[in-house]
Amino acid sequence: MAFGLALGAATAVLELLGSAVGGLALLPVLASPRGRVAVLRPLAAAARGLTRLERTRLDRLLGVRLPGFHDTAAAPRYLAARWPLGLLGAVVLGCGAYGLGLGTFAFYGWLITDIDHPWLVTLGSLGGFFLLFLSAQGALGVVALEDGLARRFLGPSHADALEARIAELATSRAEVMDVVHEERRRIERDLHDGVQQRLVALGMLLGRARRIRARDPGGADALLLQAHEESRRALAELREVAWRVYPAVLDEGGLRAALETVAERSTLPVSLGYAVRRPLPRAVETVAYFLVSEAVTNVVKHAGATRIDVQVTLEGDELSVRVTDDGAGGADASGSGLSGLASRAAALDGRFAVESPAGGPTVVRAVLPCA
Fold it and tell me: How far is CA 67 from the centre of its chain?
């Protein structure tokens, strides 16, 4: 923070000079209109470059994250308003340095001078430490003012923010609808290619058994045995389809029980870490379950992994979900499977990210707001 304020003080000097030159160039008595344009054009370019430097300083040194919004016309106004704040930061740093020197004088002062009144030096040291404390509070205040000023001039306006939010919600809604339609198509394929085919085979076996029952009881019994096995397989597939649509255990036992069931049903070893100590909204539990379930399914099918690690933690008002595997990596975040997971997270205003370098490991992360 101190380095960020010091750099801000240095750039404030440039901003002050630029504002002074720009102000003089606007005086009609000092330059013709053509001359003012010739002066203001390079100043505007310098203002844009200096504003980019300020954004970088705020982001990397002061932790001020600004939205990705750029209004080049606002750069000169921002710099003209910021230079007093930069000089204030320099004053705060100077007071902090003086307080630090005065506070620690009792430890090194005897090296450079004779101390005749130690109690006065001790009292001065206490005053120095108090000044250092006030300077630290002042530095935090300057950072807060830097944040507010930057958002006022460099961030989007309220109308722009609302438009961006509306566009984001419209995109999220369209993605959710795509996910719902894809889920419906997948369920239809599962029913048609799996359960329906087994029920057709079951009907054929029962029909054959009825036709030959009178003349070949032994053959009819064998066909009935096959029909019984086919009905068992059809019932298992029907349960599997129902489970993928919505697991009943999520309602009965909660998210932890549902995730434990996912781990038990997986063909790969799954270690589950669950650190949530309060009830979650039903929508959050549902999305978290499907994120883990589909991520585990993707790993089993495509990753070539030997183990899977699932971590679910509640940090404040955000639920963090992380699925890690030791597979070959190279997962495509824009593929249908992972993009569907991103759409599920976006439906709750959550964040979703995939890290999958070649050679692995692959880490799928999602953060879901619970407030």
Answer: 14
User: SS3 for 334-360, per residue?
Assistant: CCHHHHHHHHHHHCCCCEEEEECCCCC
- Residues 353 and 346: their CA atoms lie apart, in Å, by 11
**φ and ψ of 25, to 5 deg:** -65, -20
Do you know the residue count of the chain?
A: 371
Separation of alpha carbons 126 and 51, rounded Å: 40
Residue 26's pLDDT is what? 62
- Report the distance separating Cα 51 and Cα 14, nearest Å: 11
The C-alpha atoms of residue 99 and residue 217 are separated, in whole angstroms, by: 104
Q: Measuring CA to CA, how many Å separate 307 from each of 268, 271, 294? A: 6, 8, 15
Q: Looking at mean pLDDT, say which of 27-41, 168-182, 210-224, 314-328 comes out highest.
A: 314-328
CA atoms within 13 A of residue 204's CA, in its CB half-sphere = 7
Segment holding 279, helix H or strand E: none
pLDDT in tens, 309-325: 999 999 888 899 999 98
Amino acid at residue number 141: G
* pTM of this structure: 0.52
